[in-house]
Description:
Layout: H1 8-19, H2 23-35, H3 39-63, H4 70-78, H5 82-115, H6 120-139, H7 143-167, H8 184-193, H9 214-243, H10 246-251, H11 256-260, H12 262-265, H13 267-290, H14 292-302, H15 309-314, H16 317-333, H17 336-360, H18 362-365, H19 369-393, H20 395-419, H21 430-441
Amino acid sequence: MQMKKIGFLEAFSIGVGGMVGGGIFAVLGLTIDLAKGAAPISFAIAGFIALVTVYSYVKLSLRYPSEGGTIEFIVQAFGNGLFSSFINTLMLVSYVIMIALYASAFGSYGSALFTGGDIPWLHKLLSVSVILVFTFINLLGAYMTGKAEDIMVFLKIFILLVFAGVGFFTIDTTRLSPQYYESVPSIVTGGLIIFLAYEGFELIANTARDVENPQRNLPLAYYSAVIFVIALYVLIAVVTIGNVSFEEAKKAQDYVLAIAAEPFFGHAGFIFIGIAALLSTASAINATIYGSGRVAFLVAKLGELPRTFEKKIENGFEGMIILALLSIIFALSFDIENISVAGSIGFLIIFALVNLANFRLYKQTGGCRIISGFGFLLSITAVGVLVWYNALHSPKALQTSGIAIVAVALFVVLYYVVKKGNTLSTFIDKNLQEDEEKNVQS
C-alpha cells in the first residue's frame, strides 16, 4: 500500500517543531549572560549560519531523497569508510547531548515551578525521570505520543507567539541599546553556543522521499521554517531582555523565559511559560528518542536502513535503551553550558561537512559551489571561534566536547577493526539505491 505524501505544511511543521524544542528554553539565559543587550544579534548570527547551510540541504535532499538524511549525504560525498562512520557516530552522540540538554531544561523549569528556584537534587531527579518516562513510553510503541507531537508543536509555538506578542508592549528598550552590548567575540559566541537551537531543520531531509511536489515544497519548507524560527527567536530575545534585568537573567539563567513573562502576565505568566517549557522539552525528548537518534543508531549498527525500517523503529529496544542511558550520564555529569558547547560543536562540524558534500557533488546536485563553499567556511570558522573563546574563558566547557569526540573516534576505530572493513552501506536507504540503479539502466 502506497503511503500518503506529505505537503508543504507538514514538512514546514517538522522543521519548525525540530528547531523549537528545548533549546530556546534551555540556553536563552546563557546567551543573554554572554551578549547582554546584543542577544538578539547573537540569535541572528546563528540563524544566518543555519540559513546558508539550508542551501546545501535543499540541493542534496532533491538529488538524494533518503530516510537516511544527513548520513546519506555524507556517504554519497565521502564514501562509506571510516570517516563517514565517524561522522554518523558523532551525529548519534550529538543527539544524545540534545536529549540531555532538553532533560536539563525540563529539570530546571520543573524545579522552578515546584519550589520557585533551581534545587540541584530536584533538577537532577526530574532530568533523569523525564528521560526514563519517555523511553518507557517509546518501548510501548509511543502511538499516542506520536499522534500528540503535532498538537505539542502547535501549542508550544502558540504559547511562544503569545509571549512575544504581548511582552513586546512592555519592554524597556534601553537594555537593547549598544551601551549594553558585550564585545564582538562575546556576541558571536553567544550565538554559536545556542546554534543547537537551530539544528532541527535537518529533520526535513529524512522526509524528502515522502514530500509531494518536492521541487517546490522542499525548498519552500526548508527556507520558510528557518526564516520563521530566526524571526521568532530574535523576537523572544528582545522581549526577554526588555522585561528582565541582566542581573535577574543571570540569577534565573536556566529558566529565564518564565521570569520574563511575569512583568506582563504576573505569576500566572511564570506558571504559563514553565508549563510550556515542560511540554516543549518533554516533546523534544520523545521526538529525538523516537526519530533521528534511532535512525543514527540503526545505521551505526546495521550499516544501512533495512527494508523493515518501520518495524525496526517500532521494536528498536536496544537503540532506545542505549540512547537513554547515555543521555542520563550526560545530564548528570555535565552542566548546561558544557553540553550546550558540545552539542553546538557537534552539529556545526556536521553542517560544515554537509556544505562540503554539496560543494563536492555540485555536478550531481546542480549546486553553486560559492554558496556551499561559503557555508563550509562559515561553519568551520564558527567551530574555531567557539573553541577559541571557551579555551580562554571556559575551558571546562571544552572538556565535554573533547571527551565526546575522542570517545567517538576510539569507538569507531575499534568497531571498524572488528568489522574488518566498511561499516556503512554504499547507500543508506535501499529505496534510493533502487532509484539510482534504475536511472543507470535507463
